[in-house]
Specification:
Blueprint (H helix, E strand, L loop, with lengths): L4 H15 L12 H5 L20 H8 L9 H15 L18 H18 L9 H4 L3 H8 L1
Length: 149
């Protein structure tokens, strides 16, 4: 399956962060978009609230100029972060009033967020979810034997 450069880079950064246990939904440097943006928090200035899909003045300015960050528009970055947070079990936008997962940095919580993020990243590029292993289990056992030889 052919993927874009931006998708390859994003997946590599997210998988590395997950396996190195540096993925953190409550830290703008180590959340999904923070990792995609090379562990910087500059992306957070595109919106007034973490987990919001509404661009602020700065975000609209960059969006209207057609700027991209690591291959993604400001609105795409906000959508990526929203998918990650929702996948982790957050009620958005992120604030002290809305409930959050019991253990936001547990591997299970982060894996759920990672899966949601990867699915969304793939949809942005118009490709099938690279984490979808279901078709593998639909093959006939005979066909699997032939492929292994």
């Amino acid at each position: 399956m052919k993927t874009s450069e931006r998708l390859d880079a994003a997946l590599t950064k997210l998988y590395t962060a997950f396996h190195n246990k540096t993925l953190n939904p409550e830290c703008c440097n180590h959340c999904a978009v923070g990792n995609i943006c090379n562990n910087t928090d500059s992306w957070k200035h595109l919106s007034d609230n973490h987990g919001s899909l509404q661009l602020n003045y700065v975000g609209l300015f960059h969006e209207n100029l057609g700027r991209k960050f690591q291959g993604y528009t400001p609105l795409e970055l906000l959508k990526i972060e929203t998918e990650f947070l929702k996948g982790c079990g957050y009620i958005l936008p992120l604030n002290h009033k809305n409930p959050k997962p019991k253990n936001p940095t547990s591997q299970e919580t982060l894996f759920n967020g990672l899966c949601a993020t990867v699915e969304f990243l793939c949809s942005l590029d118009g490709i099938k979810n690279v984490m979808d292993y279901y078709p593998i289990f639909q093959k006939e056992p005979k066909a699997l034997e032939l492929e292994t030889v």
